């Protein structure tokens, strides 16, 4: 592509004009809109998946439908919100049979039922080959629980749910959006920023860093590495930690908290007992001028950048 | 395609489960949702356009952007509503240059500004070839002004704005959604059903007919035929009336009114003076059991069906 998506989005954002009814436009997991209810905001998001980019024809169509819908639930969860309803736009090749499409909808309706977020409409368009599923979703959030990307402050702890990396092996198609978990977290810790992990820990951390004008220091030994990251590393020759930092589509929650370290660690213990998987403190927020680092067990610092890190020195 | 879109949508609609917060789900121009404001409903719609289906690469990208956005404005207008904000999801081939994409956004922002409906987010995905633009839009409607497809009653007059047919010659890319006009109409006549003309007069009339369980009798001499329909007929060998009835993408308003014929005809005169183009009474609603007909100047009746009509006999 002759243009970068980041530059393009920055260009688009600079052209957008917002009335006072728009609390947050381009630049977060969802748009945030004023509501007629003075205690709440409305959330509005759209996300598309495309054949050979986000899924393949060999994949189970039910899982493809789940994924398309669940990505949007994950975005709303990461704002501290609850999804309300959604529209599904399909671009369907003429070569598909009806059974395939029915199974795609099985996945969509399964996700809609799981999160009590009904499909209220959409449209179907014929395409030649490049199947796409574009879902738009509305949600709601208490004003006091809204989590944006721009509230991280130096001294905050950095936390992440679950185990990271290697989602291409299967999790990217059947992940569980962290809606219950996000709701519990906004009620039990002081979240200052939150994002769902779609681009990978390193990149998404920089999304928070840019929005909040802060830097980061991650502890290498605390990064929760999935067994899929380990298995994938055996194939790629990269380190498991590389996959945990850089693989996309984990759909876990990455967030910063203003609580002190002992409080957040006990919350993480409670989280594990309640939900049956990890919540980890992986580092802390530092001044933007200090940059972004990852520190290993021997206290060596490697520079962190979106998409990777330098060797420890 | 091995499945029909109509059957597929009927199948999907039958599977959808709605809580009481959903006033209208699948099956109208937009979904209708309860709002925290007791006097209003929220509208929610999504519509996609795809390369070689709805536009071509030779078309002006600014017009493509306008079209993608304006289709959604047209849907909200046809519900009696006003658009609030929208998201834009793009599938962009790597071969496009940045200038092309900037001009696409010029068209999108131009439409957003024209209708005071800002772009509040979206996403960009790389595709191989099949460029798509999928826009989702939120709007608002006064409960008393909501226009669904299901309220037409025998005895109602059938009306349409503008001139019909031949939009493929240019109008499909640069049409003006009838937002101001729809707002004026809901305040000046008793609309019982309304739809925007996207599939063509004959098909869209049947959408109202099915939703309202009614039939129709159209007056052939009253169907407003565009000069594009006449020009296109000269190429295709079909009659201009055929194009006016069956061509898609007019994006005019088709509606039924409970007002008497003389009242609605004086409203049509006022409409013409105010907006500078026609509003026509083209027929009347009859019992579903009577069927759907078109009547010519010699009072001969031809059977009307979605996508055509029989010879007059």
Description:
2 copies of one chain form a homodimer. The first copy, chain A, is an alpha+beta fold. Chain A has 2 domains: 17-144, PurM-like, N-terminal domain (60s Ribosomal Protein L30, Chain: A, 2-Layer Sandwich), CATH 3.30.1330.10; 148-309, Phosphoribosyl-aminoimidazole Synthetase, Chain A, domain 2. In chain A, 33% of the residues lie in helices and 29% in strands. Chain A has 9 helices and 14 strands. In chain A, the strands form 2 sheets. Chain A has an 8-stranded mixed β-sheet with strand order 8-10-7-11-9-12-13-14, sandwiched between helices. In chain A, strands 1-2-3-6-4-5 form a 6-stranded mixed β-sheet. In chain A, helix 7 (227-236) packs across helix 8 (240-246). Chain A is globular and about 60 Å long. The model of chain A has no long low-confidence stretch (mean pLDDT 94). Chains A and B meet through helix 1, strand 3, strand 4, helix 3 and strand 5 of A and helix 1, strand 3, strand 4, helix 3 and strand 5 of B. Chains A, B: It is an enzyme of class 2 (transferase). Chains A, B: Mg(2+) 5 binds at residue 199. Chains A, B: Residues 169-295 form the PurM-like C-terminal domain. Chains A, B: InterPro entries: PurM-like_C_dom, PurM-like_C_sf, PurM-like_N, PurM-like_N_sf, ThiL-like. Chains A, B: Belongs to the thiamine-monophosphate kinase family.
């Amino acid at each position: 592509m002759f243009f970068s998506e980041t530059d393009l989005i920055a260009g688009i954002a600079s052209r957008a004009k917002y009335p006072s009814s728009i609390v947050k436009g381009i630049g977060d997991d969802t748009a945030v809109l004023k509501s007629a209810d003075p205690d709440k905001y409305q959330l509005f998001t759209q996300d598309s998946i495309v054949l050979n980019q986000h899924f393949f024809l060999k994949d189970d169509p039910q899982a493809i439908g789940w994924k398309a819908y669940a990505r949007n639930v994950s975005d709303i969860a990461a704002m501290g919100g609850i999804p309300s309803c959604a529209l599904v736009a399909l671009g369907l090749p003429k070569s598909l049979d009806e059974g395939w499409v029915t199974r795609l909808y099985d996945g969509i309706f399964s996700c809609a039922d799981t999160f009590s977020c009904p499909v209220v409409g959409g449209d179907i368009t014929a395409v030649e080959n490049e199947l796409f599923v574009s879902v738009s979703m509305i949600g709601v959030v208490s004003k006091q629980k809204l989590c944006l990307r721009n509230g991280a402050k130096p001294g905050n702890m950095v936390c992440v749910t679950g185990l990271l990396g290697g989602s291409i092996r299967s999790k990217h198609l059947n992940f569980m959006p962290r809606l219950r978990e996000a709701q519990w977290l906004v009620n039990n810790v002081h979240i200052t920023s939150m994002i769902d992990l779609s681009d990978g820990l390193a990149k998404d951390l920089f999304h928070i860093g840019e929005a909040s004008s802060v830097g980061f220091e991650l502890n290498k030994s605390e990064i929760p590495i999935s067994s899929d990251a380990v298995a994938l590393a055996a194939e790629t020759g990269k380190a498991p930690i590389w996959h945990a930092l850089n693989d996309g589509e984990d759909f876990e929650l990455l967030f910063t908290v203003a609580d002190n370290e002992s409080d957040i660690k006990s919350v993480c213990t409670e989280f594990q007992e309640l939900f049956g998987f990890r919540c980890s403190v992986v580092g802390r927020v530092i001044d933007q001028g200090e940059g972004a680092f990852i520190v290993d067990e021997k206290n060596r610092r490697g520079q962190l950048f979106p998409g990777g890190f330098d060797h420890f020195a």
